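tRNA pseudouridine synthase A
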Amino acid sequence: MMRNIKLTIAYDGTDFHGWQRQPDLRTVQQVLNEAIEQLTGSRPRTTASSRTDAGVHAMGQVVQFLTASRHGPEVFVKALNAILPHDVRVLEACEKPQVFHATLDVRSKRYRYRIDNAWIANPFELRYAWHVFHRLDVDAMNRASEALLGCHDFRSFETDWPNRMSSVRTIFDVVTIREGDLVFVEVEADGFLYNMVRTIAGTLSFVGSGKRPEGWVGDVLRAENRIEAGPTAPPHGLFLLRVDYGDARKAGSE
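Structure:
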């Protein structure tokens, strides 16, 4: 009988061309599939909660696959980490019911965008944070982002609209946090459009640096036009933090 295995994985996306397998390119799905095949003896069909782009990182990506292997969860963790390259780690493994689907059962996902807000770029953050040397007003960014909460058409924050059948999404939480010279923009929603978090971060950076007033973010949202928003922040500052499959929060509701 086939078993449905759920993995929670983390990876440094710097040297990957995103999650999804592509011919002749190094991707997270490719190296994970190869490791699973080496362990179980059969090629898996892996499904992920989010198809992260090239250069984007993950601290809590969820992956599922079916297997006839009888290995226990702890074996999957230890053995796969022994096979995988250093920039991918399996954090947890468990067996789920056959009906569980890593993509379709998602209730919410939370992303963090990291900004190095030091006057001089920190060389140790070059792979993991966007350098913005203008001092960012985090309080102004938080006030401005309140306009994004709830269910809206977010096409102003989507690159190359339309990429999906609908650009309506529900944002449950958006917050900007400062820790020394690092600024984090975190967004949790029932789903995301292409480059949505990166565009939100770029737009809020304009408010934080004083280039735009706080009310401008609401104007951008209502315009439903990508040209009205701020820049798309570069991919290397984006992290998939976690994926929620709980029943307490229903997709499509505030």
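The chain has five helices and ten strands.
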